[in-house]
């Protein structure tokens, strides 16, 4: 039986392992005793506190295979190649936009060698295809929902009008198609698209609704960074399997015991002795990765919102669910036949780079990458406290921002278009040891301070998602420019957002 003491223990254990504490429904079993996947419980669905507007669902009979007790699959490290995501081609291009079409459907995908796992995918593969957009040129993406479940799509990190943001209550019903228009008025950056239907998005993302979206711009292209085949998107996440290779959903996300790199456990990737650019996104629903690379330097050149002002050499990359890191690794001094292993602090070896050939290399990493915009002075200061409420008496706690769970009928803050604000974003669960993070829709922000001191190294550049260890307070400057309407901000540990850790702002004139 889950109780407050058990939650505190989970918080401490998960925080020490580099993953978020799971906020579990009453009676949820740990790994090894999970009977079947289940929809995410919310306070409303469970009869506890009010998380108004929850979108619940039941998995249709025969749609997703039932999961038995969780197991640790037996795999041999570095025996399968890391796959690359396919690139989606436009079905139509005009003078104003490129149009893409993509189905949301179930498919049996090979994750474990020689085995098939049912997934809920974009286009039929584990990796949603790469959509490459050009800054200043719009894209239209028509998503057809071929699942027997309602869903929707949010382009994470996009600067877009409210009607195309993937609002959590605006769903694509089974059999319907929804076209989202993205203006791509922002600078070059790695974004990603994923399900965002409130209360069900943890399961939808966990079962495969995630894909790459890259905005490219001329200023970035002029820097002569590694490109083409040497510019490689990488998706990291975790998973839990039963003995029949089905994904186990539910329980404590910290128990997910298989790390996946582009959908494979511990793959290898053959490289030439030259520079590579790796754009890495964390699509796990609740996970912090801490990566190191023995034998070669990691030079970080970008983050959520695009390029940093200058490259930074890193010994470790630390980033949470929804965050992106953009790095360059130079293999030119690595002897042929050498394997260099990318390692995570929790999972251990994740990916081996095998240096197998020479290749010409005219790319470079310049000392200056992109000037960080100086934002106007802030005229408003706000407190944004992410926390957990145990007082409701229901079978699960209530997730809150500033003491209140999400209610789509309530506006939590009204923001003036054109204004600049300071947001003090805090993790109010320090006493419980729970880790959270924070994601805002519509805008990128600049971190001013962390815990009253300078920003952490991972806070640099333009951010839309940021890690909040227990008790941390991040001060961020946020500038609102052109769009009006309703947008959300939330913990991007999706199980936390599903039980209410989400607020709503309205941009007005």
From TrEMBL:
Keywords: Capsid protein, Cell cycle, Cell division, Metal-binding, Oxidoreductase, Signal, Virion. Transmembrane segments: none annotated. GO terms for molecular function: copper ion binding; oxidoreductase activity. Residues 104-219, 269-333, 396-506 form the Plastocyanin-like domain. The keyword Transmembrane does not apply. GO terms for biological process: cell division. InterPro entries: Cu-oxidase-like_N, Cu-oxidase_2nd, Cu-oxidase_C, Cu-oxidase_fam, Cu_oxidase_CS, Cu_oxidase_Cu_BS, Cupredoxin, TAT_signal. It catalyses: 4 Cu(+) + O2 + 4 H(+) = 4 Cu(2+) + 2 H2O. PROSITE patterns: MULTICOPPER_OXIDASE1, MULTICOPPER_OXIDASE2, TAT. Residues 1-22 form the signal peptide. Its EC number is 1.16.3.4. Belongs to the multicopper oxidase family. Monomer. This is Multicopper oxidase CueO. It comes from Amycolatopsis pretoriensis.
């Amino acid at each position: 039986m889950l109780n407050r003491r058990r939650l505190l223990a989970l918080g401490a254990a998960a925080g020490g392992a580099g993953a978020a504490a799971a906020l579990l429904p009453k009676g949820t079993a740990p790994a090894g005793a999970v009977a079947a996947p289940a929809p995410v419980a919310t306070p409303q669905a469970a009869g506890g506190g009010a998380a108004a507007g929850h979108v619940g669902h039941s998995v249709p009979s025969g749609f997703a295979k039932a999961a038995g007790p969780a197991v640790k699959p037996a795999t041999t490290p570095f025996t399968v190649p890391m796959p690359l995501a396919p690139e989606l081609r436009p079905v139509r291009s005009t003078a104003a936009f490129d149009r893409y079409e993509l189905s949301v459907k179930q498919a049996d995908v090979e994750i474990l060698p020689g085995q098939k796992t049912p997934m809920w995918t974009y286009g039929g593969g584990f990796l949603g295809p790469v959509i490459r957009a050009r800054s200043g040129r719009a894209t239209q993406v028509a998503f057809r929902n071929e699942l027997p479940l309602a869903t929707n799509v949010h382009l994470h990190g996009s600067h877009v009008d409210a009607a195309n943001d993937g609002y959590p209550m605006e769903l694509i019903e089974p059999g319907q198609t929804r076209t989202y228009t993205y203006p791509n008025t922002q600078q070059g950056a790695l974004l990603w698209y994923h399900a965002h239907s409130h209360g069900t998005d943890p399961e939808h993302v966990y079962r495969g609704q995630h894909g790459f979206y890259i905005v490219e711009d001329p200023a970035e292209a002029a820097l002569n960074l590694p490109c083409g085949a040497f510019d490689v998107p990488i998706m990291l996440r975790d998973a839990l399997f039963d003995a029949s290779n089905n994904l186990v959903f539910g329980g404590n996300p910290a128990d997910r015991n298989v790390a996946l790199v582009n959908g494979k456990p511990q793959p290898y990737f053959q490289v030439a002795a030259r520079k590579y650019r790796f754009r890495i996104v964390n699509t796990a629903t609740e996970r912090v990765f801490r990566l190191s690379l023995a034998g070669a330097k990691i030079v970080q050149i970008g983050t959520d919102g695009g390029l940093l002002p200058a490259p930074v050499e890193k010994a470790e990359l630390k980033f949470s669910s929804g965050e992106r890191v953009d790095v360059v690794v130079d293999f030119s001094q690595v002897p042929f036949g050498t394997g260099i292993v990318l390692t995570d602090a929790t999972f251990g070896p994740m990916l081996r780079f095998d240096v197998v050939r020479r290749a010409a290399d005219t790319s470079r990493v310049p000392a200056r990458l992109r000037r960080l915009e100086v934002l106007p002075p802030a005229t408003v200061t706000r407190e944004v406290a992410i926390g957990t409420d145990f007082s409701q008496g229901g079978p699960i706690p209530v997730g809150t921002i500033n003491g209140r769970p999400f209610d789509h009928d309530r506006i939590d803050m009204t923001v003036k278009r054109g204004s600049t604000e300071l947001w003090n974003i805090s993790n109010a669960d320090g006493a419980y040891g729970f880790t959270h993070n924070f994601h805002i829709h519509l805008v990128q922000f600049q971190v001013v301070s962390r815990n009253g001191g300078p920003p952490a190294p991972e806070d640099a550049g333009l951010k839309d998602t940021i890690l909040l260890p227990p008790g941390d307070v991040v001060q961020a400057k946020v500038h609102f420019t052109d769009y009006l309407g309703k947008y959300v901000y939330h913990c991007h540990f999706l199980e936390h957002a599903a039980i209410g850790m989400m607020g709503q702002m309205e941009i007005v004139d």
